[in-house]
Automatic annotation (TrEMBL):
One of its GO terms (cellular component) is proteasome complex. This is Proteasome accessory factor C. InterPro entries: CBASS_pafABC_assoc_protein, PafC-like, PafC_HTH, WCX_dom, WYL_dom. It comes from Candidatus Planktophila versatilis. Residues 244-301 form the WCX domain. It holds the Pfam family WCX. Residues 15-128 form the PafC HTH domain. Keywords: Proteasome. Residues 149-215 form the WYL domain. PANTHER family: PROTEIN PAFC, PTHR34580.
């Protein structure tokens, strides 16, 4: 395996693949130094320590110290003591079979269609597991992230080129077209984000990759050095009419009671209006007056449709 510059994989699939390869590699290279192991798998030493710590909590069902992986790497050299036990063939339950088949289907959807060898191997393994635990072959899963989008994003980052993306904004609940200069992919709270310079906002933005509907190459100029045009926050006031879990989570407020009034703010007038409407009458917007007036007009239009 070639030894290139260390890197930290941001994709959960890349890290899972590396974790699966680590156990057999360590078993055949007992006592390998932590530094050498990190170089072999092309990650930083800190990332390798994080991977080994994760493996520490993996093992066979029961998940007591007797079944968990017995790894030692505190001395700077890595050994595994119970790999032969872990390697013994074992039967799988129906629930485990379902998880494996669905996991393989997600993995298959993330692979380029050009890799027919991998797709055929995954399909063959999936069929064998399905027969083993009596699963219907129609059972499948798919990733929310488009393979074409991630490919375009990674190529744009590698070549420092621009992209025109169609992005679904939850604040406005609409799909907009933006021209961006992708910089890097970040992971936060289980989601992948594209960090890029947005030529529409004239500022740096984070875009959730699963909300990017399409990404095509585009010519871009060097980002402007002028100060970005940032919208000001809009302060608003809300009265709780009927405390619900949706209101508490949407506005990040706790201990709500009927009659409670709280203040909050948002960069988007659209988000404020949509959030009040989505509450289903559980809250009343007290201020600002212009948004309150707009909501009254929308409510009247909706009521007129029912009367018609």
């Amino acid at each position: 395996m070639a030894k290139n510059a260390p890197k930290n994989a941001v994709s959960p699939l890349e890290r899972t693949s590396r974790l699966l390869d680590l156990v057999p590699y360590i078993n055949t290279h007992q006592g390998i130094s932590l530094v050498d192991l990190a170089e072999v798998f092309e990650v930083s030493t800190n990332q390798m320590i994080s991977d080994l710590t994760t493996l520490w909590m993996c093992g066979l069902p029961g998940y007591t110290p007797l079944e968990l992986m017995d790894l030692d790497f505190e001395s700077g050299y890595v050994t595994i003591r119970n790999a032969p036990t872990l390697a013994k063939p074992r039967s799988i339950t129906h629930e485990e079979g379902v998880a494996l088949v669905l996991g393989l289907d997600v993995l298959r959807s993330a692979i380029s269609t050009e890799r027919t060898d991998l797709i055929e191997a995954i399909s063959s393994l999936s069929q064998r597991i399905a027969r083993l635990v009596n699963l219907p072959l129609a059972l499948s899963a798919s990733s929310d992230i488009s393979h074409e989008v991630t490919t375009s994003v990674k190529e744009a980052i590698a070549h420092r080129s621009g992209l025109q993306i169609s992005y679904h904004s939850l604040y406005k609940d609409e799909v907009s077209s933006r021209v961006v200069l992708p910089l890097e992919i970040l992971e936060s709270q289980g989601y992948l984000y594209l960090h890029a310079y947005c030529f529409t906002a004239l500022d740096f933005r984070h875009f959730r990759i699963d909300r990017i509907k399409a990404a095509n190459s585009a010519e871009v100029k060097k980002p402007s050095t002028a100060p970005p045009v940032n919208p000001e926050k809009i302060d608003f006031s809300v009265k709780v009419l009927r405390p619900t879990r949706d209101v508490a989570e949407r506005f990040q407020e706790s201990n709500l009671e009927a009659g409670t009034v709280f203040e909050s703010s948002s960069f988007s007038q659209h988000w404020i209006a949509r959030s009040v409407l989505a509450s289903g009458g559980a809250i009343e917007l007290l201020a600002p007056a212009e948004i309150r007036s707009e909501l009254a007009k929308r409510a009247k239009v909706i009521l007129n449709r029912y009367e018609g």
